[in-house]
Amino acid sequence: MSLWDVNGNLSVFRPEARTASETRLLGWNVPPHELATIPEHWLSYPEPDASLHYLLGMLYIAFTFFALIGNGLVIWVFSAAKSLQTPSNMFVINLAICDFMMMIKTPIFIYNSFNKGYALGHTYCQIFAIIGSLSGIGAAITNACIAYDRYNVIAHPFDGKLTKGKAILFIILIWIYTIPWSVFPSMQIWGRFVPEGYLTSCTFDYLTDSFDTRLFVGVLFTFSYFIPMSLIIYFYSQICSHVFSHEKALREQAKKMNVESLRSNQGSSNETAEVKIAKAAITICFLFVAAWTPYGVMALIGAFGNKALLTPGVTMIPACACKFVACLDPYVYAISHPRYRIELQNRLPWLAIKEKPISDTASSATDATQNHTTVA
């Protein structure tokens, strides 16, 4: 059913007209003046069962609870603890802020879900999408900066140290890079924000069949996904290569000296540095891929592929993946960062973390290999 007549005018003026004989279609309860803001693609699908809306609403409540608490703790502890106030950790704080931002928009989704559709309308849709754009792209670029910083620390330990001034400059550049991708669609200068899926969330328009939309999606995909992903993979592959080469050289030297290891604390750790750094690199790459690849693929299909593949239910998978990773990030911090666990233990003893104090030497080694093991 087309929403437009032969003269290009909106042909549906009443919500009742969106109701089929037996099954209601998506958008049946949307006010007429709001229908024009919804891609026609979604309006041909039947409305899901109310239980599915409620299930997604409850899922997002859980996501919000764990992500806000986890990322809130990361922001608080990393900002307040002097032992964690390093230039490199400024990126950790920025990443946690991005994850925190991503979840403060979820009440819009939750309200829409429990009201079974586009209940809050166009204005809140724009707010939802703007926050999502800022937090998502900001997290992607922040992760690329973290990868670059870790690469410099490990590959160039003497001249690759990050200063506080440089870290602040990087963070400013991150937001300068990120903000236009929210401003242009929100003001419809280039692209636009529209509802998607069950009309309970909003994102970039990747469905309108026009050259402008395809160009926007292609450029956005390149600058907000492909470039950060390429940088992350390159820097962490280089980190692994340097660590493996270093560990190999240590083993060969130990063999020449007829000793088991050149490391004084080798016996106290069951894992070598190369295993730890490999785990960190794999974790970072995996989380970034899990968070944003589904969205990237979905956008490319919508703009350049078979739109029939994008059902409302399918589009909820990328949204849930992003939110799940935003929940997971701060808890990966806790697993991978001993100093963070110690600070948590000092500030919140009732958590019963029971982390043993670490020496300055061990701390330096850990910071060099495990300091950043999360992604947006």
TrEMBL record:
<dbReference type="GO" id="GO:0007602">
    <property type="term" value="P:phototransduction"/>
</dbReference>
<dbReference type="InterPro" id="IPR001760">
    <property type="entry name" value="Opsin"/>
</dbReference>
<keyword id="KW-0325">Glycoprotein</keyword>
<feature type="transmembrane region" description="Helical">
    <location>
        <begin position="316"/>
        <end position="335"/>
    </location>
</feature>
<keyword id="KW-0297">G-protein coupled receptor</keyword>
<dbReference type="InterPro" id="IPR050125">
    <property type="entry name" value="GPCR_opsins"/>
</dbReference>
<feature type="transmembrane region" description="Helical">
    <location>
        <begin position="167"/>
        <end position="184"/>
    </location>
</feature>
<feature type="domain" description="G-protein coupled receptors family 1 profile">
    <location>
        <begin position="70"/>
        <end position="333"/>
    </location>
</feature>
<feature type="transmembrane region" description="Helical">
    <location>
        <begin position="126"/>
        <end position="146"/>
    </location>
</feature>
<feature type="transmembrane region" description="Helical">
    <location>
        <begin position="280"/>
        <end position="304"/>
    </location>
</feature>
<keyword id="KW-0157">Chromophore</keyword>
<comment type="similarity">
    <text>Belongs to the G-protein coupled receptor 1 family.</text>
</comment>
<dbReference type="GO" id="GO:0007601">
    <property type="term" value="P:visual perception"/>
</dbReference>
<keyword id="KW-0716">Sensory transduction</keyword>
<dbReference type="GO" id="GO:0008020">
    <property type="term" value="F:G protein-coupled photoreceptor activity"/>
</dbReference>
<dbReference type="InterPro" id="IPR000276">
    <property type="entry name" value="GPCR_Rhodpsn"/>
</dbReference>
<keyword id="KW-0681">Retinal protein</keyword>
<keyword id="KW-0600">Photoreceptor protein</keyword>
<feature type="transmembrane region" description="Helical">
    <location>
        <begin position="215"/>
        <end position="236"/>
    </location>
</feature>
<keyword id="KW-0675">Receptor</keyword>
<protein>
    <submittedName>
        <fullName>Opsin, ultraviolet-sensitive</fullName>
    </submittedName>
</protein>
<keyword id="KW-0844">Vision</keyword>
<feature type="transmembrane region" description="Helical">
    <location>
        <begin position="91"/>
        <end position="114"/>
    </location>
</feature>
<comment type="function">
    <text>Visual pigments are the light-absorbing molecules that mediate vision. They consist of an apoprotein, opsin, covalently linked to cis-retinal.</text>
</comment>
<dbReference type="GO" id="GO:0016020">
    <property type="term" value="C:membrane"/>
</dbReference>
<keyword id="KW-1015">Disulfide bond</keyword>
<keyword id="KW-0472">Membrane</keyword>
<keyword id="KW-0807">Transducer</keyword>
<keyword id="KW-0812">Transmembrane</keyword>
<dbReference type="Pfam" id="PF00001">
    <property type="entry name" value="7tm_1"/>
</dbReference>
<keyword id="KW-1133">Transmembrane helix</keyword>
<dbReference type="InterPro" id="IPR017452">
    <property type="entry name" value="GPCR_Rhodpsn_7TM"/>
</dbReference>
<feature type="transmembrane region" description="Helical">
    <location>
        <begin position="52"/>
        <end position="79"/>
    </location>
</feature>
